[in-house]
Design goal:
The chain is about 25% helix and about 30% strand.
């Protein structure tokens, strides 16, 4: 994919472009220097799958992710502090951007699983475990796990594949105290999310969350505070399944970007995932149906009507 062109946002300077989000630093009106403690986090309409950013964009996706994350941050506020400072942002990115705390991000993708599917299922079939966590025999695609498990991965550069990590490897990366803290927070967020989603007829199969450290706000032991960052419990970072259609032993219907993954690996796309070639553009009907699934997830979870 062609690298995204940074937005022209007066009063801000572009800092970084990720797969989906872009970061801008506010400029001090007096000195013109970039802020060292605040960032503008802008969610684009880009969508990624299988370590590729697709050429096709999904209309309103950035707004859905931002507004759903804001709603979830409120539901999780008693579990973990989050990075949100304000949703008052430039008009050009209104509804899809947040002013957030600048954090030292942890170099680990924190993944929690309540059901077995995707890469976790592949690991289980090979090893009888996921990221070193042993699981009972006889599980299949979509099986509910005995309890939420922590299955972290590396944070690979764009275009490279995240690799599974054991908990011991996370301890080596960030230290035992911090590893235990993010493990417990990840599974607590997953459990809270599932409790809320279940009341709305939705199963939360798994999720990826990201944490950063805020040294300017130490905890009661004097350590930097662990802060929930980026996005949380969105169709980009999580798998949501309609509870009334859950049936282990098959691929589950979903409200998330698994829909896009399934099309890419179907005969209709003509794409060979192992070829190294970029995926093809999405047909208009897949774009439209993906947008509809994201909006449906937002409305089903929040009980609110999505306004673009």
């Amino acid at each position: 994919m062609t690298p995204p062109v940074p937005l022209d946002l007066p009063g801000y300077v572009h800092v970084y472009s990720g797969k989906v989000r872009e970061l801008y630093a506010p400029l001090d009106p007096a000195t013109g220097s970039p802020s060292q403690d605040r960032l503008l986090l802008v969610a684009s309409n880009r969508i990624s799958a299988y370590d590729h950013v697709l050429e096709s964009e999904i209309p309103d996706k950035g707004a859905v992710l931002t507004q759903l994350s804001l709603w979830w941050f409120e539901q999780l506020a008693d579990l973990v502090p989050n990075h949100v400072v304000s949703d008052e942002v430039p008009a050009a990115v209104a509804g899809r951007a947040l002013l957030v705390r600048r954090l030292e991000m942890l170099p680990v993708e924190c993944i929690g699983r309540a059901y077995l599917t995707g890469g976790g299922l592949e690991d289980y079939r090979q090893n009888g475990s996921v990221c070193g966590v042993p699981l009972p025999e006889g599980l299949e695609d979509g099986s509910r796990l005995p309890g939420p498990i922590f299955t972290p991965t590396t944070k690979a550069p764009l275009g490279e594949h995240d690799l599974p990590m054991t908990f011991a490897e996370v301890e080596q990366e960030v230290g035992a105290r911090l590893a235990a803290q993010v493990r417990d927070l990840t599974t607590a967020i997953l459990a809270r999310g599932n409790g809320i989603a279940a009341a709305r007829g939705i199963l939360l199969a798994d999720t990826k969350v990201e944490f950063g450290l805020d040294a300017a706000s130490p905890d009661h032991d004097g350590n930097p505070t662990v802060v929930l960052a980026d996005e949380v419990l969105t169709p980009d970072s999580s798998r949501f399944w309609p509870a009334d259609q859950w049936q282990p032993g098959r691929t589950q219907p979903s409200y998330d970007k698994q829909f896009v993954r399934d099309w890419l690996t179907s005969a209709a796309s003509g794409w060979d995932r192992s070829s190294g070639a970029a995926p093809p553009p999405l047909p208009d009907e897949i774009v439209d149906q993906t947008r509809a699934k994201y909006v449906e997830a937002y409305e089903a979870l929040t009980g609110r009507t999505f306004a673009s």
